[in-house]
Amino acid sequence: MTKAQADTAMKVIEGGKSVSNARDLLRIVIVGHVDHGKSTLVGRMFHDTGSLPDGKFESITEMCKRRGVPFEWAFLMDALQAERDQGITIDTSQIWFKTDQRDYTIIDAPGHKEFLKNMITGAAQSDAALLIIDAAEGVREQSRRHGYLLHLLGVRQVAVAVNKMDLVDYDKETFDRIEAEYREYLRSIGVEPTFVIPVSAREGDNIVGPSTNTPWYKGPSIVGALDSFQPKSDPVDRPLRMPVQDVYKFDQRRIIAGRVEEGVIKVGDELVFSPSNKTARVESIEAWHNVPGRKAPTQAEAGYSIGITLDEQIFVERGEVISHVEHPPIETDVFRARVFWLGKEPMVPGKTYRLKLGTLDAPVTVQSIETIIDTTDLSGASSHQVERNQVAEVVMRARRMLALDEFETSPKSGRFVLVDKYDIAGGGIISMEGYADQRGLITARSSNITKVEHGIDDQARAFRNGHKGGVLWFTGLSGAGKSTLAVALEKKLFEKGYNVYVLDGDNIRHGLNANLGFSPEDRAENIRRVGEVAALFARAGMIAITSFISPYRSDRDRAREAGGDDFHEIYVKADVETCEKRDPKGLYKKARSGEIKDFTGISAPYEAPDMADLEVDTSSASIEECVEQLTKYVEARFKM
Amino acid sequence: MDRLDQLESQSIYIFREAFNRIENIAMLWSLGKDSNVMIWLARKAFFGHVPFPVMHVDTEKKFPEMYEFRDRYAEEWGLNFIRELCPPIEEVDQSLPPAARSASRKTAGLKAAIQKHQFNALFAGIRRDEEATRAKERVFSPRGQTGQWDFRDQPPEFWDQFKTEFPPGTHVRVHPLLHWTEIDIWLYTQRENIPVIPLYFSQDGKRYRSLGDQDITNPVESDAATIEEIIEELSTTKVSERSGRAMDHESEDAFERLRADGYL
């Protein structure tokens, strides 16, 4: 294939747009509590808009007669024998119909809690949702859960049908009460329903046109409400995101294949691949088509599955995210997520799952379960595990850097699924609240650097000093006793002839780190610099004692990497209650009153070490005992 | 992005996912309009190549026009083409009604072919709008050791994250056209200028809307003699696409039982 051949399907600046007479298509999911009439509403809508295929009405009549049950619209979509026999929708289904305005795919979703995975499968494909509530039963558990999940899944357009109005004699007050209750719930999760409509699917009220049974209702019918929804627009105006799906070498070209999820990619653009941080320029956008004479595309927008070639042969692989240099994704090995769990086994802390995010596939471990969210009243509860069908806030940790985004800004690169053994066991959306983008910390900004070899080796220094150099990295909550212990240990070791120096948080911030604030990124940079400085002290032959809360495992791991073999992580342990009681700087009080935000242990996380080299517990041992323990530890490891 | 662009892009994404994640995959070619579009989309996904075998499980009862089409385009499109035969009809369960028996014979041929070539997965060109049990399908649909479909407990599938991990022995059907409708197929065939078997066009007031074995497939009343006329016809018709396929109609759950047993 030559460059002269182009893909008509791709939007091309020079070649002109493709035109087709295909109508707009909108996908609508029907959700709600079991038996509130989802399948019936779909059946009625099809009948009243004249969309039923020939003979369908008769065949449904026949099926019902055979079972000795009254006419059942639900049989239109409940295709499985088990569904018809039990009168319950097991799996999601789809059916097509059209109005004057456009075509619709109607997705029916099961309302039974047991089939939540099928409800999610259906709802996740939709542009908009119609949520059904039984007027006689009112707002029920799945009415709320489904509303909540729609929001989690990113479905923002919702209309509500209050069904079975015939059973409450088309009573306006009943309708008003349900509308008020459910609107309030939706508002609390950030959803504004477009319409709340009184209907009777069985009787056909307000399905395609106004009903004489509800003269007090002035809004649109169900079909009118559907026509008011807008199709989801492709996020072309967002920063470029294109996950690498595969790399092909079918012929002389090396083509990087993927779908543009957000933004626009153009020939000549400088790209960065995350998290490898390699860069290259777009040489060409590749396409296959048999229409000769068309120009090759010079750009591709969000939504298109494309291939590109690069101006340099760099090694990149599936799972990396392509972006422009100016707007790269976040790089991190830890993130916060709101997950919905579908697994047969509960989700438990410490367990490793496979994370699938875009085309990335990487192991991640559940670091902590923060809260289980009750979707009926949005209250939170703590738990040691997330059960099937529960929603929870969790913190996940990876073994290496991941490239991702927050769901709020970039939905497609901010959501993921977790795989347990062979099965998709849950889905989640990402928030980085309280966690830093670590890209700046790992990206080497200068090239042309050559390390100078020292003329004196470590051992020569150790012999002169009588001890090795190293880092004692104290980590623990504010008020745990880090600084007190650090200073006492420094004194003790100095008296014993050690070259020792304490690096303390506030002191460092006065000088070296005076330009850093308290944003997650600045906090991470603060710790990175301290880690590097402590490592220099160690290499100079001294023992550096650092005294920083350093709440994040990623930051401490980076300091360990800088410090090498002589890095010792010391966990200065005391529970929050003890620390808050001590409160030497009055900070806990300020944190409780809200004067200080994001305070570790109160309103921001403290990630305790998994395997500290030494643990000193200041809530059960005295300062003297702790210093003694530390001194013994140092003498055993540092003395020549 | 218009509707056909969206459909095409999604199909390409599915092809590329399956090709990357699953070893030893092949495509089923029934010679009908849908599987011709499917081959076309594969060539788009892989820049002119079809990097896996394309298999026709032959009942030897198709129309001559279909065999002609197959032989011509297998060569013209540069396909790695495999033909496998179905077992004789005498070997199939005698108690089944005639059409179901034909379908069952095809299922047996399919299972034998999978066994012979040790395929872990097959691309199949089914669509949700064809039939109500197909409407409940997943894009990546696992089958048991003997090919059966457990429709009561299908895996969740959302955000384009498909089930790609399977216990040993699982066979997978991948459905790149699941989200297309009949009219989409024709609109796309028209836009892309994809070759069409002439049986789909009206002759003497009848045409085939869906092509299967000669003895169990009937034409429908139609004057549509061009793709444009077919598209026009489909935008108003209320006759279902598979109304000419006898196997669907022998009993209420005929097709469900066929599919549970491994039929496409």
How does this model look, in words?
The complex is a heterodimer of chains A (640) and B (264). Chain A is α/β, with parallel strands linked by helices. Chain A folds into 4 domains: 25-228, Rossmann fold, CATH 3.40.50.300; 242-324, Translation factors (Elongation Factor Tu (Ef-tu), domain 3, Beta Barrel); 330-441, Translation factors (Elongation Factor Tu (Ef-tu), domain 3, Beta Barrel); 451-638, Rossmann fold. Helices cover 26% and strands 26% of the residues of chain A. Chain A has 16 helices and 26 strands. In chain A, the strands form 5 sheets. Chain A has a 6-stranded mixed β-sheet, with helices on both faces. In chain A, strands 7-8-13-11-10-14 form a 6-stranded antiparallel β-barrel. In chain A, a hairpin with a 6-residue loop joins β7 (242-248) and β8. In chain A, α10 crosses α16 and α12 packs parallel to α13. Chain A starts with 24 loop residues before the first strand and ends with a helix. Chain B is α/β, with parallel strands linked by helices and 264 residues long. Chain B folds into 2 domains: 3-180 and 252-260, 3-Layer(aba) Sandwich (Rossmann fold), CATH 3.40.50.620; 196-248, no CATH class. Chain B contains 7 helices and 8 strands; from the N terminus they run αβαβαβαβββαββαα. Chain B has helices at 3-21, 33-45, 64-76, 98-117, 182-192, 227-234, 254-260, and strands spanning 25-28, 54-58, 81-85, 121-123, 140-143, 171-174, 206-207, 220-221. A 6-stranded mixed β-sheet of chain B has the order 3-2-1-4-6-5. Chain B has a two-stranded antiparallel ribbon with strand order 7-8. In chain B, α3 links the parallel β2 and β3. The longest helix of chain B is centred in the middle third of the chain and has 20 residues, at 98-117. Chain B starts with a helix and ends with a helix. The mean pLDDT of chain B is 90. At the A-B interface, β2, α4, β7, β8 and β20 of A face α1, α2 and α5 of B.
